[in-house]
Amino acid sequence: MNNRRIALVTGAAKGIGRAIVERLIREDYFVVALDINAAGGEELVAAFGGENLSFEAVDVCNESEISALFSKMERLEVLVNNAGIIRDNMIWNMPAEDFDVVININLKGPWLLCKEAAVLMKRQNSGRIVNIASRAWLGNRGQTNYSASKAGVVGMTRALALELGKYNVCVNAVAPGLIDTPLTQNLEPAVLQKLIEAQPTRTMGKPEDVANVVAFLASPETRFITGQTIYVDGGKSIGAGW
Ligand code: NAI
């Protein structure tokens, strides 16, 4: 790893996380890839090589494992909080456990990682944090838990940008729309088709579309951009329109 910039990416084993890993390695980062999916992690190491990546089988909600991981790190240029899940249902059908698990993984997990990264980045007087939110923070039917968790990510991003600004640490969020990943491949085909038709671009995004923006926000060139949420959603966040 030597003098290479180090990036920690959560939820790295598949989908958007994997595309972010690939993109950051192309930008010559050494990536610490974190995921609960250990088999996916082995596959990542095989694909990208131990000289470019190390894998940590850690749950973003596990405070002691996260702090053990950070205790081994001397520096960190970029943290990407990407791990996230959905447990969709209308509120009247949603078990309270599905609210808790989504808030825990999507919001508390990133908060735990931000907390550790803030200590390190404040000390080194530099850094970038990119939190993957979702366009759904604006509101989606069937996603009271998920929308609340992602609205929390946007709020946390703004608050942390204020706390870390004077330490040269920029904190931003990316809000993807409909992206073609294992998460959306699980949607019913008819539902997916409707969602695609509701996009101004009439297409789904690709994981690489999100990874490109993460790479931009991670770069040293973005030192004057902080607290922002950048939509990568084919225009869906604009609202209704013909
Ligand atoms: P995915 O389901 O394809 O991949 C998520 C990864 O996170 C998996 O490798 C999974 O093992 C890992 N993960 C789940 N829980 C974890 C935990 N507790 N600790 C560590 N790792 C964990 O999901 P996808 O689509 O790649 O989504 C990535 C992020 O982008 C999520 O935060 C999601 O909410 C967000 N997003 C995705 C959109 C989409 O259309 N796919 C749209 C908007 C936001």
Give the overall silhouette: globular
What do we call the CATH topology?
Rossmann fold
> How are strands sequenced across the largest beta sheet?
3-2-1-4-5-6-7
How many angstroms separate the termini? 50 Å
> Radius of gyration, rounded?
17 Å
Structural class estimated from helices and strands: alpha/beta
CATH fourth-tier homologous superfamily: NAD(P)-binding Rossmann-like Domain
Helix content: 40-55%
Textual characterization of the structure:
This protein has 242 residues and is of the alpha/beta class. It has one domain (6-233): Rossmann fold (3-Layer(aba) Sandwich). 44% of the residues lie in helices and 16% in strands. The chain is built from 8 helices and 7 strands, in the order βαβαβαβαβαβαααβ. The protein has a 7-stranded parallel beta sheet, sandwiched between helices. α1 links the parallel β1 and β2. α3 (63-71) packs parallel to α4 (96-124). The model has no long low-confidence stretch (mean pLDDT 96). 1,4-dihydronicotinamide adenine dinucleotide binds next to α1, α4 and α6.
